[in-house]
Design brief:
The complex is a heterodimer of chains A (286) and B (323). Chain A has 16 helices and no strands. Chain A has a single domain, classed as Orthogonal Bundle (MetI-like fold), CATH 1.10.3720. With 286 residues, chain A is mainly alpha-helical. In chain A, 70% of the residues lie in helices and 0% in strands. Chain A has helices at residues 2-6, 18-42, 46-53, 69-76, 78-109, 116-128, 131-144, 151-155, 162-173, 177-185, 190-198, 203-218, 222-227, 236-246, 251-271, 274-278. Chain B has one domain: Orthogonal Bundle (MetI-like fold). Chain B is 74% helix and 1% strand. Chain B is built from 15 helices and two strands. Chain B has a two-stranded antiparallel sheet. The longest helix of chain B has 36 residues, at 30-65. Chain B is flat and about 75 Å long. Mean pLDDT of chain B is 86; it is low at 1-22 and 319-323. The chains are: A mainly alpha (286), B mainly alpha (323). The interface between A and B is large, with 124 and 131 residues.
């Protein structure tokens, strides 16, 4: 649990550094002001946004009135349905993705079989090649396979996540072998060992993998763009882009859409603060 | 979870030293070994099927498609042209310009993002009040899906938008940003970096936190200032995490698509047309799927090289983590 505490502790030596404090505040303002501006704009009438864009005045971030009308307009239109489609796609993707990743990671971490290291490398490398690179030929295959414009067609490409498998494997390697030996002596099958021994001690690793799979699918844009044309299967990011390019005059709803898209991953990541510590792949700490 | 870890076991497997495993397996009865191999096959089947259908099949599809030339309308059957499409691509000045643009974009955006992320990580690991708040504020843009932030920046950077309002209030002149071939690429870099920097910062913060405290204390006893400490302690010990985020960032930015599709459409005057968007436009905009497939093959080969490096960095990283 060291890494979880890290977000709050791990002080470097010495007293408070004022240079660092001032830099931290200024730098974080640089990042947060545009996000704050987006949020304010999502809560005020479009005409108020237009009037505040130019010339520079305090009105740019101080609204004359606040309300949730933009969100009501947005969710009353095609975006509302698209948001639900996105949710459903992501949930199913996470479920299938977790089963696939947990099973593969268990085999690659715990079971001994010939060619294990080679398969591990092949699995992780082929899933780490960014999906976008092969999305175009895959869309032609999905067309041949009758998966274009289907719900499963949206779900399937998101189920593989190389980092999810990698993280789960690293975690399973840390589970003492004696646990499994004890269960096997009692006659438990591998499926049972995985389910009743490994899964219960892997909560954080599993939820992080779920988060990785979810985030990848939630923001996917290129794939739904080329694999789906039917309006009933439109996902939220595309509905937003479409609303922006087709009737870009409704800035209020556009900002509300950007915020609505952000709120789900932001909540998940900030609540599951483990993200900050446990996904620390770069640190050699997994 | 740390306490349950068995370093030796991890180390052996992490190093890829299958010898330890092989010895143990030899001691076990062969029935047991067969049983384990069978279970491994069952557990790996979904992942391997997914690789086959979702990765290898499209790669093969692209490769085969790229060797043919089709005709508009699809009435005449497509003909085998061997490497003809690749030859056409490499003889085309526009394609070389696209490659050059992709390379320049990556040579600028990746070091820029990682340098900024490193600067932030260093600041955010110093002893400052309310540290986790500043970290979260920098990270928040990374939680906004890029389609949302692209649109918002599109509005912020329009000719009569708030960024130009600030510029002219400060006495500067109004900038065209996305509407000028000279500034469009820089504007894309701005949007992608606003999203990306906070994300990579998190990785580097963990990297810095993993550096043993004693080294910083020793540096302090030696009366090393923050800059000397940074170059002589932080940077050398952060080499691997830095390399990892640099490669991972490059992989992500090489296929950057959303801001280009939403904001510039590759323009103006092709100034933001890079390999990924180019392959998309060749295939769907110009309905030339054979040429598009050749472009996909080239892009995938480049990605594969980067990912192989990334995987090595991940692997070499694991033994150190168990210490």
């Amino acid at each position: 649990m060291r890494s979880r505490a890290r977000f709050h502790t791990g002080n470097r030596i010495g007293g408070t550094s004022w240079v660092a404090t001032v830099s931290a505040v200024l730098l974080s303002l640089l990042f947060i002001i545009p996000a704050f501006w987006m949020m304010i704009n999502s809560l005020r009438p479009t005409v108020d946004i237009f009037e505040s864009l130019w010339p520079l005045s305090p009105r740019v971030i101080i609204p004359t009135s606040l309300g949730v009308e933009n969100y009501l307009t947005l969710f009353g239109g095609p975006f509302g349905r698209a948001f639900l489609v996105s949710m459903a796609v992501c949930l199913l993707t996470v479920m299938i993705g977790l089963v696939l990743s947990v099973a593969a990671a268990y085999a690659l971490a715990v079971l001994r079989f010939p060619g294990r290291n080679a398969i591990f490398a092949a699995v992780v490398i082929s899933f780490m090649v960014p999906f976008e690179a092969i999305a175009i030929p895959l869309s032609q295959l999905f067309n041949d396979w009758g998966l274009t414009n289907t719900f499963m067609g949206l779900v399937l490409p998101g189920v593989c996540n190389g980092l999810a498998i990698f993280n789960l494997r690293q975690h399973f390697l840390s589970v003492p072998t004696s646990y499994r030996e004890a269960a096997t002596v009692d006659g438990a099958s591998e499926l049972r060992v995985l389910w009743s021994v490994f899964v219960p001690v892997s909560g954080p690793a599993i939820s992080n993998s779920a988060l990785l799979i979810f985030l990848g699918q939630w923001s996917s844009y290129l794939w739904p763009l080329i694999a789906v044309s039917s309006p009933s299967l439109q996902v939220a990011p595309l509905a937003l882009a479409k609303a922006f390019t087709e009737h870009s005059a409704d800035y209020g709803a556009t900002f509300a859409g950007a915020m609505a898209l952000a709120i789900v991953p932001a909540t998940l990541m900030l609540i599951l603060q483990r993200f900050f510590g446990r996904l620390a792949i770069g640190s050699g700490e997994k | 979870m740390q306490s349950r870890r068995m370093p030796d076991e991890r180390l052996a497997v992490g190093l890829g030293a299958s010898r330890a495993g092989a010895n143990r397996a030899r001691r076990r009865p062969s029935r047991q070994r067969r049983r384990e191999a069978l279970w491994a096959a069952i557990f790996l089947a979904p992942a391997l099927a997914a690789i086959l259908a979702l990765r290898l099949a499209p790669a093969a599809e692209a490769l085969v498609t790229s060797l043919y030339r089709g005709f508009p309308g699809g009435l005449r059957p497509q003909v085998f042209v061997g490497l003809g499409n690749y030859q056409t691509l490499f003889l085309s000045q526009a394609y070389w310009e696209t490659i050059a643009r992709t390379i320049v974009f990556n040579l600028v955006i990746n070091p820029l993002q990682i340098a900024m992320a490193l600067l932030l990580a260093v600041v955010m690991t110093r002893k400052i009040p309310a540290r986790s708040i500043w970290r979260v504020l920098v990270f928040i843009p990374a939680t906004i899906p890029i389609v949302g932030s692209s649109i918002a920046w599109g509005i912020a950077l329009q000719p009569q938008g708030p960024v130009n309002a600030i510029l002219s209030a400060l006495g500067g002149s109004v900038q065209p940003f996305f509407t000028s071939p000279q500034q469009s690429m820089a504007s894309i870099i701005l949007v992608a970096s606003w999203v990306g920097i906070g994300y990579w910062m998190i990785f580097l913060i963990s990297g810095i936190d993993a550096i043993p405290e004693e080294l910083f204390e020793a540096a302090k006893l030696d009366k090393a200032g923050p800059i000397r400490t940074f170059f002589h302690v932080t940077i050398p010990l952060l080499k691997r995490p830095l390399l990892f985020v640099l490669v991972a960032d490059t992989v992500a930015n090489f296929v950057l698509f959303v801001p280009i599709q939403v904001l510039t459409g590759g323009g103006p005057e092709s100034s933001t047309t890079m390999q990924m968007f180019n392959a998309y436009r060749t295939t769907f905009g110009h309905s030339s799927k054979n040429m598009g497939a050749a472009e996909v093959v080239i892009l995938s080969l480049i990605m594969l090289a980067f990912v192989a490096i990334q995987f090595r960095l991940l692997r070499e990283d694991s033994p150190r983590g168990s210490k």
